[in-house]
Amino acid sequence: MDFFAFLIDGLLIGFVYGIAAMGLTLIWGVMNVINLSHGAIITLGMFGVYLAFAELGLHPYLGIVLVGMAGLLTGMVIYAVAIHRVINAPHLSTLLATFAVNMIIIGIGTAYFTTNARNVDFSLGSVKAGPVNIQVTRLVAAAFSVAVTGSLYFFLYRTKYGKYIRAVSNNREAAELMGIPSAFILALSFGLGTMLAGIAGGMIATFFPFTILSGGTYEVKSFVIGVLGGIGNPLGALIGGILLGIFEGVMPYFTETSWVPVFEFGLFVAILLFRPQGLLGAKK
Amino acid sequence: MTTQGTDAKPQNELLNTLLDNFKIWTKKLSHPGLWITIVGVFILGYLPIADQSPEAAFANATARESTFTILMSIVLVSSLNILLGYTGYVSFGHIVFYGLGGYVGLYTIIEHQWPLWKAMAAGGAAAGVLALVLGSAILRLRGAYFALATIGINEAMRAFVSNYDPFGGAVGLSIHFRVYRETYGSYQDAFLVMYKAMLGLAIAAVVLSYLVKSSKFGLGLMAIREDEDASDIMGVIPYRSKIIAYMLSAILPGMVGVVFFFKASTIEPAAAFKLHTSIEWLVMIMLGGFGTIMGPVLGAYGYQNLRTILLTSEFFKNIQLAVAGLMLLGIILFIPAGLIGWLRRHISFTRRVLT
Amino acid sequence: MMILQVKGVSKRFGGLQALSNVTVDVPPGQILGLIGPNGAGKTTLFNVINGVYKPEEGEVIFKGKNVVGKKPYRLAHMGLSRTHQIVRPLKDLTVRENVMVGACFGSQNLSLGKAARIADEVLEFVRLRERANQLAGSLNVGQKKRLEMARSLAARPNLLLLDEVLAGLNPTEIAQMVEIVKEIRTRNTTIIMIEHVMHAVMKVSDQMLVLDFGKPIAYGTPSEIANNPKVIEAYLGDSSLADQFNAELAAKSAATAE
After folding, report:
1. How high is the pLDDT of residue A280?
2. Which residues are CB-contacts of C251 (< 8 A; sequence separation ≥ 6)?
3. Are C and B close enough to touch, i.e. 3+ CB pairs under 8 angstroms?
């Protein structure tokens, strides 16, 4: 019974991990940028929902939608200010540019919010499924994650701008020659990635307490999931997230919790070494 | 094709070779940039300890502390530059060597009562061996994949050490203050020893990075940085060169870890493998100019001083991190070659002096 | 003894048969011209010879040793050098340092001091001496091609693979480069050159090999190749090249008639 509780718990959180990772690998896949501000943006998502809930009195799920929209705009601004100039420079430049954004966000956030823990005090109760109790917030988050993934696929495969994004991701020079405004498309992709990160942060805020530094953990998890699912493969990210969630949920059943990260990161490095295209294969 | 005539006179050839080597070494060792850097680091390190009386120790305590930090950064950053600046491989998790060195060093000091120098050697050796083993695996990866693997390894190491009982698990290791008193007389005296050790390491780091850069091996590394496949075709052995570069960039940080945590008297996983600190090293390199000798030194000096100023200013204290981030962004966007790189590129005579 | 023997080499990329059963012998001191339409597998053959790709079938015997499966750097140490169709200067190193890489790590395994001396000689030879201290990234295309050449020469190779060193050069530069190639040959370096500039490759080659869709379709002296109907047909498949080929043939026969 215990085992199933762990399993379901992990599985449901895994959906949210998947959305966070999707934001990271979308940016990575399309523009070949590893976004080191990812964790900071997840944190912004958490605090966005917190502010909407605690200061404005909005429903947290409305807060998540607003955070998503704000995330899109924020991401596009970040791209324009911090990344566009170095988009063709070696990796180090984009890595450090996004890390600088991370420092700026965390720096301002720490000054304003301090590093005290916050909490979105909100619950939808739980439902009993056989022997296990499931938090409704987690069920909603999992359903929402599936909806977000579906919308992303619809956007990428059925809309003009989505097709542009895939074209730019395949071959930026060729896309430019075809008259696709690549700068705008890159900004849009970064915005989408940021939006996903923000939404993921918002959903996490409905489960757990958090501080301004909490995003870092999810950033590293997103890396793990990204290489697990294959870079630039949104569905792979979702599946990778679920796998990681289950793994984290079930592992404490077999070993001490403190050993979990050892296996987690060991696995991460092993996948990088032996299957860098991801367990599920990279897809554009 | 250009050997005509020389084959007939082998003794001439030998003479030429000796002459060439002599010229190369005199040229190498007479580079003003090398000496400016060495003397600069020495003066920086020597001033706070010039007067060794107990009163001076008290008066200069703050200066010694902050200079110790700067010297430490110089070693770490100059070492990392061998991998990052010369070879072009971004290691985010380089702190793993510093952390491991610290643990191994403190372990030998606590469990085997080793003196500092011996513990430093052990820490450096451990870091070197770790670099050899890790490098053999992850240096097959290119670009961003390598960078990510270094993060993964650091995190895995931190998680592992948190569970590893000989290293004290999550609590870590602590040195009893008795150790300083019994071996060095007092903590102050012990600190002076550590300080001098750090100064020595800083100068060693500068010399090492200069020797690597001005060697044939260094030329091969820079060829790898510019185009790994093309350099392979020209006969550079990328895999082996990268592993050696990785080891060279790991050993001194391992020794620094020993000195630093010996000074702190305690080590725990979160402090030993702090990813954030590791990324700050990259910032320092970029600030001064990657791939240069002086760049990392100036970057370490500039960054640490800036940090101190920001942390002590009422106004900036709270947003210290944001201001540093803004500066980093400005450098990446507008002066990507760093201070030294920019000067060398834009003011031609500086190329003879700066290196 | 042959310096290079390619025996029945085949290389596949997914569904594409890039090379099928290519065989050719190259005696020392010769210049072999390697021609064929775009996508015929010429560069792939170079990549197989110098160890970048491993062929599925066949052997590559260099200086009497089967080198299939050997890494590119091993072949460089054994005395093989090449240039790239798309130049690959080490941009942030100086022109001299670029050439020193070739000298230091090639077959001679020279020290830095010696390499610097060789670099200056070779740069003189390809007329880049006055640019030795410039960053390689700042050169123009023609200069970069000569740098590429200098880099491979500085290794003092026994066998030199030249991949379209004339492409993108203006007529004066082509003439200069042809002189350089001829000069190299007088120094007893064997050369295989891929080239689209037909009159030039015909002028310098001793033997020529024609590839089409990965298959060798003709081998012989330049005049034999020029009159080989299969070759003309292969080029006719590619209309622009066929025109160029015919025009150049006409120019060449006019020149020889004089």
Report:
1. 65
2. C199
3. yes
A9-23 average pLDDT score: 94
Asked whether the beta carbons of residue C76 and residue B235 sit closer than 8 angstroms, the reply is: yes
SS3 state of residue A215: helix
Each residue's pLDDT expressed in tens, for chain C with a length of 258 residues: 899 999 999 999 988 899 999 999 999 999 999 998 888 899 999 999 999 999 999 999 999 999 999 999 999 999 999 999 889 999 989 999 999 999 999 988 888 888 999 999 999 999 899 999 999 999 998 899 999 999 999 999 999 999 999 888 888 888 888 888 888 888 889 999 999 888 888 889 999 999 999 999 999 999 898 888 888 777 766 656 666 666 766 665 666 554
> Does A89 contact B137 at a Cβ distance shorter than 8 Å?
no
Nearest CA in chain B to A260: B159
Closest-approach residue (CA) in chain B for C186: B1
CB contact under 8 A, B148 and A97: no
End-to-end CA distance of chain A: 40
Residue C47 contacts residue C18 (beta carbons within 8 Å): no
pLDDT level of residue A284 (50, 70, 90 thresholds): very low
Q: Does C144 touch chain B (CB under 8 A)?
A: no
Nearest chain A CA: its distance from B135 CA (Å): 12
| Chains in contact with C, counting 3 or more C-beta pairs less than 8 Å apart as contact | B
Tell me if chain A has a CB within 8 Å of the CB of B133.
Answer: no
Q: What region, left, alpha or beta, does residue A15 occupy, with left being phi > 0 and alpha being psi -120 to 50 degrees?
A: alpha
- Residue environment code for A251-282, b if the CB has 16+ CB neighbours within 10 A, otherwise e: beeeeeeebbbbbbbbbbbbbbeeebebebeb
Residues in chain B closer than 8 A to A258 (CB atoms): 159, 162-163, 170
pTM for this entry = 0.89
CA A31 to the chain's CA centroid: 16
Give the list of residues 6+ apart from residue C94 with CB closer than 8 angstroms, or none: C132, C133, C134, C135, C136
To which H or E segment does residue A30 belong? helix A2-31
**C 84-103 near B (Cβ less than 8 A):** 84, 88-93, 97, 100-102
DSSP states of B101-169 = HHHHHHHHHHHH---HHHHHHHHHHHHHHHHHHHHHHHTTS-HHHHHHHHHHHHHHHHHHHHH-GGGTT
Q: How is residue C221 written in tokens?
A: 């002296």
Q: What are the chain A neighbours of B84 within 8 Å (beta carbons)?
A: 92
CB distance C114–B20 less than 8 Å?
yes
ipTM of the complex: 0.88
Distance CA A279, CA A277 (A): 7
Residue B148 near residue B89 (C-beta atoms within 8 A): no
**Closest chain C C-alpha to B97 CA, distance in angstroms:** 29
According to DSSP H, which parts of chain C are helical? Answer: 42-49, 72-78, 95-105, 112-125, 141-154, 171-186, 198-204, 222-226, 229-236, 239-257
Domain edges within chain B: 33-353
Which chain A residues are within 8 Å of B155, Cβ to Cβ?
Answer: 220, 261, 265
Question: What's the CATH architecture for C1-73+198-258?
Answer: 3-Layer(aba) Sandwich (3.40)
From A140's Cα to the closest Cα of chain B, the distance in A is 31
Question: What's the average model confidence in pLDDT over B277-281?
Answer: 88
The CATH code belonging to domain B33-353 is 1.10.3470
Mean pLDDT of chain A: 90
- For residues C253 and C258, give the distance between their C-alpha atoms in angstroms, rounded to a whole number: 9
Q: Do C98 and C66 touch, CB atoms closer than 8 A?
A: no
Return the pLDDT at B203: 97
pLDDT at B2: 43
Could you tell me what percent of chain B has a pLDDT over 90?
64
Q: Is any Cβ of chain B less than 8 angstroms from the Cβ of C189?
A: yes
Q: Where are the domains of chain C?
A: 1-73+198-258
